[in-house]
Design brief:
about 270 residues, binds flavin-adenine dinucleotide, binds FE2/S2 (inorganic) cluster, Rossmann fold
Length: about 270
């Protein structure tokens, strides 16, 4: 795919969102995905790694990936510019179970770049063609500090809508921040979304997930309506190499989205 646009998301410039277009027109109609799926991105000579689609399939003809600069491949990606070509192998994984979520209220809880596929799902649900299929939508999103908040313009637009409740927070703030300050689990406790006919979808750093799950349980969210998206080291992305398994499940092929009920039956190594 060809890089069309690169947006620097964070003040430290370590997270960028890449908008890609299909170099081969035929691939456009073949690449059908649901929010929560991922693709393996590759740069010649630098390797391949998995990244969640940050765009919604309702944005036709382009894919977006939000990439945190971590090592060899992501540094190579960060050095690329519009016009450069990136290898994309996908879509991979299961994605969010849209049919199951339909008719329910949705609580989205995201932190760090783990928010990218939840952003994709939110944009999918907010699309005029889909909004009526879902109940109330609540988004609780947190970053470590204001300089690390992603998708700022889009979040501002979401904040103006009356069909979505947005709660943004940072762990610690400087003078310019007028919003909430507090850790995500505490904000979830404060917002206290009703668990009635509601799915909670959580993605973020492990520490955030660890402290958020007990709050959701206290609020009455059953484990089969609490969904998590996992990040494991991967290679093939196809359930073949055995790199990413937890017990009998392959995170790349059976996941990365699992219910808490499914995960509680697996060895606790995730
Ligand atoms: C399903 C899935 C979706 C992902 N989505 C995104 C995304 O949207 N945006 C994004 O920026 N990243 C995402 N990642 C993570 C990304 O694939 C890794 O960070 C990747 O290894 C980066 O490649 P690299 O060559 O730049 O870094 P590497 O050279 O592979 O690693 C750099 C550093 O990160 C550590 N590391 C690498 N992978 C992991 C891991 N899975 N868990 C813990 N530590 C690790 C390494 O030990 C090393 O210290 C996702 C991973 C998975 C499995
Ligand atoms: S990455 Fe090969 S089995 Fe999952």
């Amino acid at each position: 795919m060809k890089i069309e646009k690169v947006l620097v998301e964070t003040e430290d410039r370590n997270i960028k969102t890449f908008s890609l277009s299909f170099a081969n027109g035929a691939d456009k109609s073949d690449f059908n995905y649901v929010p929560g799926q991922f693709a393996e991105l590759s740069v010649l000579g630098k390797g391949e790694a998995p990244f969640g689609m940050a765009s919604s399939p309702t944005q036709e003809g382009c894919l977006e990936f939000t990439v945190n600069k971590a090592g060899l491949l992501t540094t190579a990606l960060h050095n690329m510019e519009p016009g450069d070509i990136v290898g994309v192998r996908g879509p991979l994984g299961n994605g969010y179970p849209l049919e199951q979520l339909e008719g329910g209220n949705i609580v989205i809880i995201g932190g760090g770049f783990g928010f990218s596929t939840l952003r994709a799902l939110t944009n999918f649900m907010l699309d005029d063609r889909n909004r009526g299929r879902f109940g109330d939508i609540t988004v609780i999103y947190g970053a470590r500090n204001p300089g690390l908040v992603l998708y700022k313009d889009e979040l501002e637009e979401w904040g103006k809508r009356d069909d979505l409740s947005l709660y943004m927070t940072v762990d610690s703030a400087n003078g310019d921040w007028n919003g909430r300050v507090g850790l995500i689990p505490n904000i979830v406790k404060e917002v206290a979304p009703s668990a009635d006919n509601t799915y909670a979808l959580v993605c973020g750093p492990p520490v955030m997930i660890r402290f958020t799950l007990p709050v959701l349980q206290e609020l009455g969210f059953p484990s089969d309506k609490t969904l998590l998206s996992l990040e494991m080291r991967m290679k093939c992305g196809l359930g073949m190499c055995g790199r990413c398994n937890i017990g009998s499940k392959y995170v790349c092929a059976d996941g990365p989205v699992f219910t808490l009920a499914e995960l509680s039956k697996l060895p606790q190594e995730h």
